[in-house]
Amino acid sequence: MKWKLTLRFLRSVMTIVVIVGIVNAILFLSLFFIKVNNNNFGTEEASAETFSRTFSQYVELQAGKPVVNEEGLKKLQEMSAWVQFLNDQGEQAAAFYTPEELKTEYSPIEIVQMYKYKELDARTTVFVSEAQNFSYFLGVNNPKIGRYVMTYDYAKIFKDVNVFLSIFLIVDVLIVIIIGFLFGKKLTAPLHTLIEGIQQLRERRFKKMPTPKGVYEDVFRNMNELSEKLDRHEEERKRLDQMREEWISNVSHDMKTPLASIQGYAEFINDSATDLTAQELQEYTSIIKSKSMYMKDLLDDLNLTTRLRNHQLSLQFEEANLVQFLREMTIELLNDPTFGERQIEFEANVAKAMHKVDKKLLKRAILNLIYNALVHNDENVVVKIRVDTGPESHTQISISDNGQGIPTKDLEQVFERYYRGTNTTSKHGTGLGMAIARDIIWAHEGKLDITSAENIGTTITILL
């Protein structure tokens, strides 16, 4: 995989460079031949040569001799130029603004030399043209202007160009291969590391990778964050798997015990029906009934907490005053013969706290929390229910007791299913009450917090 990425990148770079090289070569040759054919290598030279070729428009014949009109003389002065007219014998027929050292008679070869190779001085460039049957030299005194005579052989040019292009392509390809290989290797090395990291994630090995500087920095950082999250989720999954196994074990144990009792008493009644008194029969059937009710409550609670946890339970919301709601609940508890003699206090620091709640489920959640405080402490425990205005205009419900408290190591697991504290021997209930209470509060988009200290007491706070 590593070499495939490197070669793929290298092919892309080579293709781009070759295409650019070909386009540049075509453009270069096109411009070169256009320049050669036009013989035009500079704006000022082109302007001077055009002026010399078209200067005949300013020349007139007077008494058989060429004469430059006023406009032509003005143009010569603007161009810092001079003009010398020659007859068929190469003798000077007329001259305007010519320098003193300029010859007045030329042989044919000297005329050719003057045009092709010789200049009057380093500052002057001479052009040759014709006007009114007279030849003329037009000199431009400007060091920026130059003229070069070039001869060339098309066959040799194309041959040289082919060699040049071949060398150009070979050198460019070598450069592309070397640079592309080095750059591609550097670019694909992090990708190879990323691929290995993804494979590790697939194999559930969450190893943090070193984060390089550059374009891949964000990618590696996000990969490391993903690895950390997956690692945490994996730990959570293992923990939940362990809890699920414990749940199944606890449920199996809790179901087997009442089933064994039901089976045992049912067999006893069946075998000794004629020998049992009415009182004994009533006692045994009462035990069978209570064990059956326990199993039903266990299954109902398990079904409820599962549906709450998976958001499969539709809540029936209605407007309720939580102050009045909790006060009535406290009165019901005090009227319950089971808890009528226990110390349960209610305090409200607000007159009204209106919320949309599922009254049936919320009542069950709060009762579970209160039952937990009453059942797992001695009979002298004092349970206080209090309603306040919490932070950010939330309604705060607190349920506190002055009982034996919960050890610190048990606090994080209090709301887990089937969890029973290490400092309690009570087997009352199904072991799902606290989990159900938490899930109901969460279903109301509320928050649940617990604080406790051994031999001081426990406080559970609800924010709605």
Keywords:
464 residues, alpha+beta, 53% helix, rod-shaped
Overview of this protein structure:
This protein has 464 residues and is an alpha+beta fold. The protein has eleven helices and 13 strands. It has a five-stranded mixed β-sheet. It has a four-stranded antiparallel β-sheet with strand order 4-3-6-5, covered by helices on one side. It has a two-stranded antiparallel ribbon with strand order 1-2. Helix 5 packs parallel to helix 6, helix 7 (278-309) runs parallel beside helix 11 (433-443) and helix 9 (359-375) packs antiparallel against helix 11. It is rod-shaped. The two termini are 55 Å apart. The relative contact order is 0.06. The model is unreliable at 39-46 and 421-427 (pLDDT under 50).
SSE layout and pairing:
Blueprint: H1 2-38, H2 43-53, E1 59-62, E2 65-68, H3 70-78, E3 81-86, E4 92-96, H4 108-116, E5 124-131, E6 134-141, H5 154-202, H6 217-271, H7 278-309, E7 318-321, H8 322-335, E8 343-348, E9 354-357, H9 359-375, E10 382-389, E11 395-401, H10 408-411, H11 433-443, E12 447-453, E13 457-463
Parallel strand pairs: 8-10
Antiparallel strand pairs: 1-2, 3-4, 3-6, 5-6, 7-9, 10-11, 11-13, 12-13
Helix pairs in contact: 1-5, 5-6, 6-7, 7-11, 9-11
